[in-house]
Amino acid sequence: xxxxxxxxxxxxxxxxxxxxxxxxxxxxxxxxxxxxxxxxxxxxxxxxxxxxxxxxxxxxxxxxxxxxxxxxxxxxxxxxxxxxxxxxxxxxxxxxxxxxxxxxxxxxxxxxxxxxxxxxxxxxxxxxxxxxxxxxxxxxxxxxxxxxxxxxxxxxxxxxxxxxxxxxxxxxxxxxxxxxxxxxxxxxxxxxxxxxxxxxxxxxxxxxxxxxxxxxxxxxxxxxxxxxxxxxxxxxxxxxxxxxxxxxxxxxxxxxxxxxxxxxxxxxxxxxxxxxxxxxxxxxxxxxxxxxxxxxxxxxxxxxxxxxxxxxxxxxxxxxxxxxxxxxxxxxxxxxxxxxxxxxxxxxxxxxxxxxxxxxxxxxxxxxxxxxxxxxxxxxxxxxxxxxxxxxxxxxxxxxxxxxxxxxxxxxxxxxxxxxxxxxxxxxxxxxxxxxxxxxxxxxxxxxxxxxxxxxxxxxxxxxxxxxxxxxxxxxxxxxxxxxxxxxxxxxxxxxxxxxxxxxxxxxxxxxxxxxxxxxxxxxxxxxxxxxxxxxxxxxxxxxxxxxxxxxxxxxxxxxxxxxxxxxxxxxxxxxxxxxxxxxxxxxxxxxxxxxxxxxxxxxxxxxxxxxxxxxxxxxxxxxxxxxxxxxxxxxxxxxxxxxxxxxxxxxxxxxxxxxxxxxxxxxxxxxxxxxxxxxxxxxxxxxxxxxxxx
Length: 695
Ligand SMILES: Nc1ncnc2c1ncn2[C@@H]1O[C@H](COP(=O)(O)OP(=O)(O)OP(=O)(O)O)[C@@H](O)[C@H]1O
Hints:
Elements: H1 6-42, H2 48-70, E1 76-82, E2 87-91, E3 95-96, E4 102-106, H3 110-117, E5 126-135, E6 138-146, H4 163-168, H5 185-191, E7 198-203, H6 209-223, H7 225-231, E8 233-237, H8 240-246, H9 249-252, E9 259-262, H10 278-284, H11 288-298, E10 308-312, E11 315-319, H12 321-332, H13 341-355, H14 359-374, H15 377-386, H16 392-406, H17 413-422, H18 432-442, H19 451-457, H20 462-474, E12 484-487, H21 495-504, E13 509-514, H22 524-535, E14 540-545, E15 547-552, H23 553-566, E16 574-577, E17 584-587, H24 593-607, E18 612-615, H25 621-627, E19 634-637, E20 647-653, H26 655-661, H27 665-673, E21 676-684, H28 688-694
Parallel strand pairs: 2-4, 7-13, 7-14, 8-9, 8-12, 12-13, 15-16, 17-21, 18-19, 18-20, 20-21
Antiparallel strand pairs: 1-2, 1-5, 3-4, 5-6, 10-11
Helix pairs in contact: 1-2, 5-6, 6-7, 10-17, 11-16, 11-18, 12-13, 16-17, 16-18, 18-21, 21-22, 23-27, 26-27
The structure holds adenosine-5'-triphosphate (ATP).
């Protein structure tokens, strides 16, 4: 057998170390498994204490098991050779040997920070930084960086051409991956920023804002698990497609306790996946909508009785509309509609009593009068229809018909018309904040009693119980706060959406990532002001990411020209990778558009190994979907649904349509163009947008 090369020797050496770590992981897994089994057995002891103990034990051990399981692939990814001769291995989670000595340092631990911070200019004691590329538990490649050549021993081997560039060239699949092995210095600083206050991370497309934010969530959980796990971490992104795209990153870092929600499903119990039309969305999200809803919540509901007319003894007692309005105002000055039924009742009784003049009634007194009304059918019917329990969704349905009455100073008659015309039967993504606002304006109606839950709970499986607890919590608007709220694509949030998130983060720390040039909200400055209001007086720490790791330089240079049309001073990034492939723009006759789009897509699927997206204005999607090839690597998407995603190839159909579809058209176009990692082709029937870009 020939002698192994230095590279092979290094690989074999690293494999031996990695094997030792996996053996320990296997040991820990066995221990956790036997704890689950033991915990389950305790459930058979039969007394209540046994059950509680079992639950706690099974819970802890199950959590540990899932973390161990999730961290399995690529568990060990880094090694530092320090100038004192120490070799320190870095991994997705920390692992100790049988003597409790650390054999793998968790990437979030202080001892690992130098892995991300050290540079050739400032090696911070690191001689060589090594990234191990693994498939499952096999080491398949090594990428080294020599940071301090002077301190390197003569026999130190240095392999590879840079871990980052190697990882950037890989084909994209349908999920985002953790970048834990190649986090860059400026990214690391944002990830490890203080856990209090608000961290705002800006930067152009592809600079790693999403990936940094997710690693930050994992970092926060690691540094203050008690606070963030018990208080909860909420991660909000733009769409369901996006949430599916990012959902594997945190589990692969050993974290399974984060709540991921798209902006349409932030409110417990309601879920929206469709957008309102851009025209309606701009009005639904505007801050004056909050004022309109506040007025609607206080006003009598449509069909509410205008007059109360009762007989008692010798009197006819009448409360006119003006009396009723006065009572309503007084009651609502001390509470919300759903929490003030009893005081509304009391005020009615009082007002009616004031109208009593007959001696027989006066002799019996006010208390007897109250008792009489208690069982009086006419009075009870009146109270029920005058002060009904209000469901926020039902009230939301009444909004368009009431705007003229309560909001003529807030929305022009044209705007009211748009809202009436476009009001959906079922809530759209943009309606959810309105329903949430109404929940808070109307107050929480009394919910089911504790008894409904008490008895079967202890016998439930852990998962079942956790689920039930969540459902129960959804009934309450008081406990929907989180300890940390992380908002991705924050530039898109409307003022109403910020109010909705603000309510979930009243006592939270925040991580907010976004890029104004990609905003689909018509007035980005308005969205930023609403964000500042949600953050209140929290200290804000700002970070900017400067390197675009997604797009080839050729694609990004073209997209940057579009960004300059989109906003005055776009935050442009530096793209690091050249492919030699310029974006291509095809202009064809209208009757050739579909055929050409199919031909370009088919060609693109042959040219790239990973995913391809066909993007077109929403009105064109049905026809495109009908003619596109069936391929699991291909997605056909609306421009807004591409937010945050990336594909190896993008075919954009009808860019002019994207530009004219909404007020934020140029910014949306910039989003679409910056989704492609390798190849970009546009197919359209006019060159209007291209001429504008060239100006
Ligand atoms: N340090 C890194 N190492 C390897 N890949 C990275 C690194 N940072 C970012 N990337 C990759 O770059 C791509 C873009 O990252 P990400 O989606 O987080 O960017 P973004 O700033 O959120 O983009 P956008 O604003 O367009 O949504 C992803 O594939 C991500 O994995």
